[in-house]
Structures are given as structure tokens and as C-alpha cells.
Design brief:
about 130 residues; mainly alpha; Arc Repressor Mutant, subunit A
């Protein structure tokens, strides 16, 4: 499904003001995504520009459509997607304990070979950091 953003003149002024006020890189990227979508950019192009996945951009655009700037600019929102790695968390912990010197690429390859799970290194790194693995 394609989500479109059509900002009114007033909303474009609000967006411009918020883009100048916001100091958080995370929130600035969300505002940038809304702006680019308003100007007709494709989700995949916005993702490349913002340095995030298309799913993330889609989530941001949906947030804006559903709740405007207030929802978009909340630091943490309740609709976080569950990680596809959650079901493998214990196995990952076991792998790390058995292979303490393994590099991230080794873990990435192990996940692919053992479970058929393909995951980007940067995403895997964040998952490991966020879950103290």
C-alpha cells in the first residue's frame, strides 16, 4: 500500500518551523521523510536519503497520517515492530557464549546457515546492543 502525504500550506510552515527547532537527529529524519513524501519521493528513495529501511519510512509516514506532528515527534512509540530475531535470542546468546571471539559477520553467517535468517550487519549490531548480547 502506498501512503501519500499532502500537506496544507499551514502544515508546510509548521514542518519548516519544526525542522529548524528539532535538535534530535532521529526526529529530524522523520520530518525529512514527511517532507520528501509530500514532494512525491518514493519510499525507497526516502529510505536511502534518511539512511533507514523502507519499513521504517513507512512506519513514520503512517504515524504522521494517523497522528500528525504530535505522534511523529514522540521519541518512543508503542507500535514498535517485533524483531525477527526475538525467537532466536537464546540461540544467539548461546552462540556468543560458545564463540566469544566470533565477529559480527560470523554471527550473521551462522544465523543464515542455521536458521535461514538474513539480517544486515548494522541491524544485527543494534539488536545485539539493545538486548545486551
Amino acid at each position: 500500500m502506498s501512503y501519500h502525504v499532502r500537506l496544507s500550506t499551514e502544515e508546510t510552515y509548521i514542518l519548516a518551523d519544526k525542522m529548524q527547532e528539532i535538535t534530535s537527529k532521529k526526529l529530524s529524519r522523520r520530518l525529512l521523510a514527511v517532507s520528501l513524501r509530500h514532494f512525491g519521493y518514493k519510499m525507497k528513495d526516502i529510505a536511502l536519503i534518511a539512511g533507514v529501511s523502507e519499513k521504517t519510512v513507512t512506519t513514520w509516514i503512517k504515524m504522521f497520517i494517523e497522528g500528525g506532528f504530535d505522534l511523529l515527534l514522540t521519541q518512543n512509540y508503542s507500535k514498535d515492530r517485533n524483531s525477527k530475531l526475538t525467537q532466536y535470542k537464546d540461540a544467539i546468546r548461546g552462540y556468543r557464549e560458545e564463540n566469544p571471539d566470533a565477529k559480527l559477520i560470523d554471527l550473521q553467517n551462522w544465523l543464515l546457515e542455521s536458521y535461514g535468517v538474513e539480517v544486515e550487519q548494522s541491524w544485527l549490531f543494534r539488536y545485539m546492543e539493545n538486548h545486551n548480547l
